[in-house]
Amino acid sequence: MHEVMLTPSTPDAYRSIIRYLTEGKYAFHTYQIKSERVYRVVLRGLHRHTPLHEITRDIEKQGHKVRGVTNALHPKSKMPMPLFFVDLEPAPNNSDIFNICRIFYSEVRVEEPHKRRDVVQCTRCQQFCHTKSYCNRPPRCVHCAGEHDSTTCLKSRDTPATCTLCSGDHPANYRRCQVYKDLQNDARKRTYTQEKRSVDPPPMRASAAVAGSSNKFPILYHLRLPATPR
Ligand SMILES: [Zn+2]
Ligand SMILES: [Zn+2]
Ligand SMILES: [Zn+2]
Q1: Which of 24, 30, 171, 176 has the fewest Cβ atoms within 10 angstroms?
Q2: What's the 27 CA to ligand 1 centre distance in angstroms?
Q3: Span 5-30, average pLDDT
Q4: How far apart are CA 137 and CA 27, in angstroms?
């Protein structure tokens, strides 16, 4: 089995490659186009019950296009917190939102969201670093490693699970699976070096070392080429 990674330079190229792969029934996954990705910030200082449409209206009055506002819930109690996530449509003035200091008669603070440190796992094929909306690989069951959607699994409760990643007797989303633990460690090391690097002024070409990041449309995707399309 061969894995190939492609980095098209324009959105049109991206779309025609996707069309070709989909029609040829190739197994592949992709990522969201960066130019379509929302710009997310965190808003602090508002009352927890501030109506979302008022927040939207106020931010739009201050020159931004809002895709959505959500109220953050406490992870345990699920109660609303005085914290909101604001998703802006990508635009050149996105970072101006950090200058906003009043919304809906309150003083607010706009912050960057915490970076996600967990490696994401696809719930369709159980592999990492992409999500099921961008996955076109054959499904793998999280319970039994079979080639079916996890929701249609017929494995009985008393037969042990099989991990499709390491063949161990646990489900594929088990956080102590060695494959996951190794990846997570690698990702931590990478974030650490990136954070260290971002303290020093980075040389202009620093990001060019990362595949695709020097590109205007850094879309990467891996695809598996079978001998013949399925
Ligand atoms: Zn997948
Ligand atoms: Zn199954
Ligand atoms: Zn495992």
Answers
A1: 176
A2: 9
A3: 85
A4: 4
Residues bordering ligand 3, an ion, CB closer than 5 Å: 163, 165-166, 168, 177
Distance CA 113, CA 39 (A): 10
- Mind listing the pLDDT tens digit for each residue in 88-118? 999 999 999 999 999 988 999 999 988 766 7
Q: Which residues pair with 153 in a beta bridge?
A: none
Q: Among residues of the chain, what percentage have pLDDT more than 90? A: 51
Name 52's Cβ contacts closer than 8 Å, sequence gap at least 6.
69, 70, 71, 84
Cα→Cα distances 116→97, 130, 187, 199, Å: 21, 13, 11, 19
Domains of the chain in sequence order: 38-111 (3.30.70.330)
Per-residue burial over 32-51, b if 16 or more Cβ lie within 10 Å, else e, is eeeeeebbebebebbeeebe
